[in-house]
Specification:
This protein is mainly alpha-helical. It contains 6 helices and 2 strands. It folds into 2 domains: 1-57, no CATH class; 59-108. It has helices at 3-22, 25-31, 50-57, 61-79, 81-92, 96-103, and strands at 33-34, 45-46. The chain has a two-stranded antiparallel sheet with strand order 1-2. 0% of the residues are buried. It is a multi-pass membrane protein.
Length: 108
């Protein structure tokens, strides 16, 4: 394989990282600004801590934060071991026919 082939194979992964990792960083910048769509990202005044002060003053904030943490913890506890257990279970299956039915499901 030539250098161009390898670069073309890496290109979709790089685009994915750019779209979902670097573009959302504008939201982090907006969190510290008194953002105005007319001024744009770099000319809006810095509001610094005012936004966060407003969020922490909401009476339901700690309830919302607790619910978010519980959901994240449950997603981690269920989502992390589930694929590993499924892989271990499928590794113990001896029937080739059954495995082919699982992996090669016919689409109509």
């Amino acid at each position: 394989m030539g250098q161009l082939d390898i670069q073309l194979m890496v290109l979709p992964a790089m685009l994915f990282i750019f779209i979902f990792s670097y573009i959302p960083m504008d939201g982090v910048l907006m969190a510290f600004q008194d953002f105005s769509i007319f001024h744009g990202f770099f000319t809006s005044l810095l509001g610094w801590i005012q936004t966060f002060h407003h969020v922490f003053r909401i009476t339901e904030f700690f309830n919302i934060m607790r619910n978010t943490m519980v959901i994240a913890l449950l997603k981690f506890c269920i989502g992390f071991p589930a694929p590993i257990l499924l892989a271990l279970i499928l590794n113990e299956v001896r029937s080739i026919f059954f495995l082919l039915q699982i992996f090669l499901i016919k689409q109509k």
